[in-house]
Amino acid sequence: xxxxxxxxxxxxxxxxxxxxxxxxxxxxxxxxxxxxxxxxxxxxxxxxxxxxxxxxxxxxxxxxxxxxxxxxxxxxxxxxxxxxxxxxxxxxxxxxxxxxxxxxxxxxxxxxxxxxxxxxxxxxxxxxxxxxxxxxxxxxxxxxxxxxxxxxxxxxxxxxxxxxxxxxxxxxxxxxx
Length: 177
Description:
By secondary structure, the chain is an all-alpha fold. The protein contains 10 helices and no strands. The radius of gyration is 24 Å and the shape is elongated. The N and C termini lie far apart (49 Å).
């Protein structure tokens, strides 16, 4: 078992050395990530607001009915239309937060398409994911996790349209300057 693990580890190190992104392309990717950082931050805030909004829309009618209307909230939920109010609040929270997240993702793709794709020829969002998985593949010590990240790297390389030669030779980045 130890021999198989060591040979697999050696194989993954050799795979790891083959997948590098050119330094000029890294520079453009850093500029892109710096430019879309506010959209990522807002997207993560709305992602965290989703469960908070669902919990608040579920639990907020209880104290309102108890202290404002002075009725038993649980009896009103069963006999009245309060259940529809709760379900509507949950659905509204999910829709509003999802639309906001999709809008921020759309804005990131617009920045990528208008500013960086004419220079690089690829979507910078996909290139960012590729770099993320390359760095995760380098950092991990477990062969199974490296294989997982290798599959994701292959997926993003295929999605971008790069074969191994184009990624290693840096022809794309040389065309930029």
